[in-house]
Amino acid sequence: MFIDTAKILVKSGKGGDGAISFRREKYIPLGGPDGGDGGEGGSVIITVEPNMTTLLDFKYRRKYAAKDGENGGGSKCYGKDGEDLYIKVPMGTVVRDFESDKIMADLAHEGDKFVVAKGGKGGKGNVKFCTPTRQAPNFAEPGMPGEDRWIKLELKLLADVGLIGFPNVGKSTLLSVVSKARPKIANYHFTTITPNLGVVSLPGINSFVMADIPGIIEGAAEGVGLGFEFLRHIERTRLLIHVVDISASEGRDPFEDFLKINEELKKYNVKLWDRPQIVAANKSDMLYDDKQFEEFKDKVSKLGYKNVFKISAATKLGVDELIKESARILSTIPVTDIEISEEDKFIPEDKKFTYTIRKEDNCYIVEGSFVDRLLNSVNVNEPDSLRYFHKVLKNKGIMNELMELGIKDGDLVRLNDFEFEFLL
Predict the structure, then answer these.
(1) Model's pTM, two decimal places?
(2) What is the 3-state secondary structure (H, E, C) of 9-24?
(3) Which positions are annotated as binding GTP (predicted)?
(4) Where in the chain are the domains?
(5) Where is average pLDDT lowest: 56-65, 98-107, 342-351, 369-378?
(6) For residues 22-43, average pLDDT
(7) Helix (H, G, I), strand (E, B) or coil at 361
(8) Which CATH class is domain 356-421?
(9) 297 has binding-site annotation
């Protein structure tokens, strides 16, 4: 089964909590704090696996989570870092943030990897909060939370040449005679329902990869037929071979077919429309005379397409010449990665702990992720810890903001379940 898109949930590990510990050994009555830091949370890393060809694995498993970091321990023991989770994908996979649909990474080369969810930072143990005036801190930092997000994986085949054209014009037959690929071939529309790849090789040319893209028809860019599902697979191709049925065996005009397919390319991505094209006038063995081909070639040439080949995939007429010209053109086109515009590029937000302040009667309520983290860090029932708590509120600017809002001596300040009276 060929699967070329997948949606999965990735979650990195939480950082381990810092330890609150004091050295207690015989003959050392005042050993001081010795709580170690928590370990880093594991990250989720997407990496290229050259032997994979589809995203089928992600059809059966949707959630991927890395390990949490271990908590710190006494005797300045650091917690163990959480193990990173590696997710293998085929070469040519594009990673998107599902919510914004922006591109996070393009994994187009062997060895490419991308950290899609970074593990949380470990919290500091109480030994890190020891100062000359605070010699026995009874608090430590909790670990930072990990990241979790839904992402979309898109496989865009790594082919040098893409075969495009209406259904039943002979694309699969052409691929089968120039490579060892064995696509399904039959005389009805949409015989090919998944892309096929083949390596093309002839004496005297550099081999290249050719992809047969399932039939693109009029309206493909809007989702008609199969073309919309697989148009993405020609985005990486450097050269397109546009196959038309020059014999008009199904009653369609070859030139009209040519114009319609190019219009779909333009609607989907204007860069595909501008890509170099070779025109392969197939099924020439079914022509009564060459007049049909010459008229077609003349019309296409006037549009700027000079490479027009009269071929028959069934009899192999003109096929070698078509392949040699394709190899020649490929040698002049450098390999480039997909261009990602600034608008399409995903920019991760910095992890920031925020807060809001609102007033209810004479009580000022401070809430938000900053408050949650601070209260998890301190023991408000312990004097040293409480002094540190007030120092953080002052350094963060919360005290100044409260005064700007008109707080007076004796007014209550509430942070979650903890309340205290404000004093200047």
Answers:
(1) 0.75
(2) EEECCCCCCCCCCECC
(3) 165-172, 190-194, 212-215, 282-285, 312-314
(4) 1-156, 161-330, 356-421
(5) 342-351
(6) 85
(7) coil
(8) alpha beta
(9) no
Is 20 annotated in a binding site? The answer is no
Residue 212 counted as an annotated binding residue: yes
Q: Is 326 annotated as contributing to ligand binding?
A: no
| Residue 74: both structure tokens together | 């006494």
Is 160 annotated to bind ligand? no
Annotated ligand binding at 66? The verdict is no
Q: Tell me: is residue 36 an annotated ligand-binding position.
A: no
422 labelled ligand-binding: no
Contacts (Cβ under 8 Å, ≥6 apart) of 141: 17, 18, 38, 123, 124, 125, 128, 377
Fold designation for 1-156: Spo0b-associated Gtp-binding Protein; Chain: A, (2.70.210)
192 known member of a binding site: yes
Q: Is 51 annotated as a binding residue?
A: no
- 3-class SS shares of the chain: helix, strand, coil, % to 5: 25, 25, 55
Is 285 annotated as belonging to a binding site? yes
> Which residues, 6+ apart, have CB-to-CB distance to 358 below 8 Å?
364, 365, 367
pLDDT at 150: 96
Band (279; pLDDT cuts 50, 70, 90): very high
215 among the known binding-site residues? yes
312 annotated as belonging to a binding site for a ligand: yes
pLDDT in tens, 398-413: 999 988 888 888 889 9
Please check if 284 is assigned to a binding site.
yes
Q: Do residues 220 and 268 lie in contact, with contact meaning Cβ atoms separated by under 8 Å?
A: yes
171 is in an annotated binding site: yes
169 marked as binding residue: yes
The angle at the Cα of 234, spanning 284 to 262, to the nearest 5 degrees, equals: 55
Better-predicted residue by pLDDT, 122 or 288: 122
**Is 161-330 the same fold as 1-156?**
no
Q: Is 365 annotated as a binding residue?
A: no
Say if residue 190 carries a ligand binding annotation.
yes
Q: Which is the CATH superfamily of the domain at 161-330?
A: P-loop containing nucleotide triphosphate hydrolases (3.40.50.300)
CA distance 48 to 108: 8
Is 214 known to sit in a ligand binding site? Answer: yes
Residue 317 sits at φ, ψ, to 5 deg, of -65, 125
What average pLDDT is seen over the chain?
A: 85
